[in-house]
Design a protein that fits this description.
The protein is α+β, with helices and mostly antiparallel strands and about 350 residues long. It has helices spanning about 60-65, 90-100, 110-125, 200-205, 205-215, 260-270, 285-290, 330-340; strands spanning about 5-10, 30-40, 45-50, 70, 75-80, 85, 135-145, 155-165, 175-180, 220-225, 230-235, 240-245, 245-250, 275-280, 295-300, 305-315, 320, 355. The protein is about 25% helix and about 30% strand. Strand 2 (about 30-40) and strand 3 (about 45-50) form a beta hairpin. It binds 2-OXO-4-methylpentanoic acid (COI). GO terms for molecular function: branched-chain-amino-acid transaminase activity.
């Protein structure tokens, strides 16, 4: 294997670390960042950890015009033994390459990038918060930097990794949220970019999010982009329901993001020998289950919030109150086991953990 080294430039004036009560999601960043350049025909080169700083990028850089960019999100956790560990980081880098493929961004060497991320996290280990429920959020992203405003795949990119000590993503934490089923806007369509983690998907979700927040909802439930009948995602998370004892989640169809937490939840449920099925689920079916009294639980899954129970779903003027607005047993067990593994408090039968 070719030599892979990461140059390091230490920052001269480290920032003060935030107090636990100051931690929210994604507003504070650590002292250093990782940068790797891509230039044709050389490929990815000049991996370096440098002080966290603003970028100097040409205003004609293609990313500003046509949004050729991808990102990932994963976390580093502080364990009771004082170790720092990552949860299935290789899954995020595999997905980054799938997103790269969809956005015509060159493939990365996943093992090189993972090694560099671990080096960065190790350097910033004092930034990993130790209070319960907190972690260091890792945000790798790639942008096209070539100065050109023609519509085409760029020839120059930057892969950057920044780190942010975080608390809970939703103020509700593990408490149930109120969700509105979105009937006007759609998140993605088959053949579009829904299964890629690209900024455009999130930009196009903002309008619905803004409108639902004005009506007192935390997020929207997205339906399919063609018939607006079938359930796809909730906010920026995958979604699961427990109906008559069976746990179901929409099957991957090209417009749903393949979440690492989604995959881990499915594996955990199978390990517990609980019935779990990936299938197409219509909103009508869900409503019927609610009317029959068989809709037992609903929850979102994602890296940022882990498990987010849904206490109320509003659809076409009808309010579906789920599990009396309380966190369900399955959601609670999943949250406790997943965070138990992530924080090194529970056995890791799947080898999901990678020490830094
Ligand atoms: C996640 O929870 O995995 C997300 O993608 C949320 C992020 C966009 C903040």
């Amino acid at each position: 294997m070719e030599e892979w080294t990461v140059e390091v430039e230490h920052c001269k004036s480290p920032k003060e670390k935030p107090k636990t009560e100051e931690l929210e999601f994604g507003r504070i960043f650590t002292d250093h960042m990782l940068v790797i350049d891509y230039t044709e025909p050389v490929g990815w080169h000049d991996a370096r950890i440098i002080p966290y700083q603003p970028l100097t990028i040409d205003p004609s850089a293609m990313v500003f015009h046509y949004g050729q960019s991808v990102f990932e999100g994963l976390k580093a956790y502080y364990t009771p033994d004082g170790d720092i560990q990552l949860f299935r980081p290789e899954k995020n880098l595999e997905r980054m390459n799938r997103s790269n493929d969809r956005l015509c961004i060159p493939q990365i060497d996943e093992s090189h990038v993972l090694k560099a991320i671990k080096q960065l996290v190790h350097m910033e280990k004092d930034w990993v918060p130790t209070a319960e429920g907190t972690s260091l959020y890792i945000r790798p992203f790639i942008i096209s930097t070539e100065p050109f405003i023609g519509v085409a795949p760029a020839h120059h990119y930057k892969l950057i990794v920044i780190l942010s000590p975080v608390g809970a993503y939703y103020k509700e934490g593990i408490n149930p949220v109120k969700i509105a089923v979105e009937n006007t806007f759609v998140r993605a369509v088959k053949g579009g970019t829904g299964e890629a983690k690209t900024g455009g998907n999130y930009a196009s979700s903002l309008k619905a999010q803004e409108l639902c927040a004005k009506q007192g909802f935390t997020q929207v439930l997205w339906l399919d982009g063609v018939e607006k009948k079938y359930i796809e995602e909730v906010g920026s998370m995958n979604v699961f329901f427990k109906i008559d004892g069976e746990i179901v989640t929409p099957s991957l169809n090209g417009s749903i993001l393949e979440g690492v937490t989604r995959n881990s939840v499915i594996q955990l449920l199978k390990h517990w020998q609980l019935p779990v099925t990936e299938k197409r689920i219509s909103m009508e079916e869900l409503y019927q289950a609610h009317m029959d009294g068989t809709l037992e639980e609903a929850f979102g899954t994602g890296t940022a919030a882990v498990i987010s129970p849904i206490g109320q779903l509003s659809w076409e003027g009808k309010d579906l109150h789920i599990n009396n607005g309380k966190t369900g047993k399955v959601a609670k067990a999943l949250y406790e086991t997943l965070t138990g593994i992530q924080y090194g408090k529970e056995k890791d039968p799947f080898n999901w953990i990678e020490k830094v």
